[in-house]
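Write out the 3D structure for:
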Amino acid sequence: MKQQNKRTLMLIVCTFTYLLIGAAIFDALEAETEEHQKGMLEDLDYFYRAKYNISTVDWKIMETVMIKAIPHKAGTQWRFTGAVYFATTVITTIGYGHSTPLTWSGKCFCMAYATTGIPLGLVMFQCIGERLNTFVAFVLKAIKKCLRFRNTEASQTDLIVVIGTMSSVVIFAGAAGFSYFEGWGYFDAIYYCFITLSTIGFGDFVAMQKEGVLANRPEYVAFSLIFILFGLNTFAALMNLLVLRFITANTADERAQALEAEAARASAVHVEGDIIQHSKANGSICSGHERELPERREAPTKEIYYRTVEDDGASVCSCTCYRPQRSAHPLDYASKRSSGRMKAPKHYTVRRSPTKISHLLPMETFIQDSDDEGRDRESESRETNTFLRSSGKRKRHSF
């Protein structure tokens, strides 16, 4: 199994295991509190219905009115200031749920607006996060040069530590501001800041929902929007670095596998047409040596030459069914061919590919003396001519 597949399978298993562990912990922490709160609300419901003699229908109506009135406490939600706040929660995918479109046209436009705005916002935060990482790396490099460190380059670990610290500062500073404006406890404010910047957006804590805040506190509205946008940029930079480490690991594995495949391909024996070639020899039939062309091909002369298997491009076979054929020089052949005194030399081709190619593997090259080589060629030529005369002049052989 490939390394990438192993890592993907491990991520799937770890993610589902993490989900199950989280569910078990939340069950242990929140189940009992939920039951207690539910029982308390049921007791209050029964008490007030009995005290004021309210029917079940009237009580349901009162509950609906109280729930629907919550978004309107801050003022008109759909004026320009409130609409800007809502649009920000849409394209950043925070989605508190404090206000939602009610008309058919508003719902349709919200879907179309989110379809375009969410990718645009993600790309913007991603680009700003990358620029922020580049700036932090530049500052770290300058600081290391001033302190005369040996290694002045900013590593990914350094960037993660610095950007993580910046994100923590943004959360703690924002929590102080929201605790002041909203009157929340500092821990609840930290919880709200983290849920907002991580774009979870439960909606249990929503800023700017007090009486007339949208219309009467423009400085608070500006603070909230700046906090959301700047905080999301720092979180995007941090997520960018964390994801980059995983992508870098995957890329390194892919590069290593590509190099291994290239090395295997370079040492493999492959078939091109009817010729068995060896990649290490640049297509040469003999392994370990590149085939050199005879010098007589560069300057044609009237001497006898020998047509070999390599020259014709025929199949290489270790058996003796094919021998080099002696023929005249190409210049003599062309003149005699035109006058009709000489026939074309016979070529032999492979009609069917062999089922076993163990005998077709690259052969070693042996260097002989010039005298012995000439005698061997004359002997092989005589054997070839004898074989051709016995097989017939016009017959085409295949093997």
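The beta strands are 269-272, 275-278, 305-307, 325-327.
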